[in-house]
């Protein structure tokens, strides 16, 4: 929620900022930042509710899908995905 709800865009330059992780460099830029309506907490909660109501059906449909831990170095993630495509692990 924090990551999505604190995103902002500068309407002049199109540059994207985050109020915590990448704040605007000057008060002038900070004053003109705008939040996309999709990033308001209420709308994020609605999207998450829809996601969680559909996730089981998606898991059932994509039974052959593999889990990717994306909380790693991008090169490690790429290597893992590539290995799953080239030499898939045997089915359970």
UniProtKB/TrEMBL annotation:
The segment annotated Disordered runs over 1-23
A GO molecular function assigned to this protein is: AMP kinase activity
Per the record, the similarity remark reads: Belongs to the adenylate kinase family.
Ranges of Basic and acidic residues composition bias in the record: 1-18
Q: What is this protein called?
A: KAD8 kinase
Native source species: Sylvia borin
Give a yes or no for keyword Transferase in this entry: yes
Domain of life, source organism: Eukaryota
Q: Which UniProt keywords apply?
A: Kinase, Transferase
């Amino acid at each position: 929620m924090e990551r999505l709800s604190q995103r902002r865009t500068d309407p002049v330059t199109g540059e994207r900022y985050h109020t915590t992780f990448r704040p605007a460099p000057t008060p002038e830029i900070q004053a003109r930042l705008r939040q996309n309506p999709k990033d308001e907490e209420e709308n994020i909660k609605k999207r998450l509710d829809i996601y969680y109501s559909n996730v089981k059906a998606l898991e059932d449909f994509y039974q052959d899908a593999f889990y990717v831990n994306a909380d790693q170095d991008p090169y490690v993630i790429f290597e893992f995905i590539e290995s799953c495509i080239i030499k898939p692990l045997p089915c359970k």
